[in-house]
Amino acid sequence: MWSVHRWKPGNLPRVRRVCERRYQKKQGVDTKNLPFLVHRTPSGNLPVYVEPTQKGEKFTRIRRVFGDAQHLANEVSRLCESSARVGRGGRKAVEVLGVHEKRIKEWLQHLGL
């Protein structure tokens, strides 16, 4: 027999993803000279995501950007060889057309972010 278990609001299991080891934050790197910062998620991962568009294409979004987002967009554009832009809305995010998640995460980790 199957039993139905109802979750109460206070008893919901909390799931937190493990930090990706290959993109862990470098210790002892000075990031004060950078014109931008990309804050990591609470689980320690870099906030770089691949999302679909309505046309079926994919784009890579960098969230949690603080400081000069346009400078970050220019650097990402040069790195990925594709046009990047600062996303619209209240929060700063940089968007670049195509799947560039791995390349951007490696570059951000190299910078010490």
TrEMBL record:
Query: Which GO BP terms apply?
Result: translation
Family according to the record? Belongs to the mitochondrion-specific ribosomal protein mL49 family.
Task: Work out whether the entry's keyword set contains Acyltransferase.
Answer: no
**From the Swiss-Prot or TrEMBL record, what is one GO molecular function term?**
structural constituent of ribosome
Task: Name the Gene3D superfamilies for this protein.
Answer: SUI1-like domain
A GO-annotated cellular component: mitochondrial large ribosomal subunit
Location, primary (coarse class): mitochondrion
Question: By its UniProt entry, which InterPro entries does this protein fall under?
Answer: Ribosomal_mL49
Keyword terms, alphabetized: Mitochondrion, Ribonucleoprotein, Ribosomal protein
Q: What is the designated name of this protein?
A: Large ribosomal subunit protein mL49
Compartment(s) of residence: Mitochondrion
Q: State a single Pfam family of this protein.
A: Img2
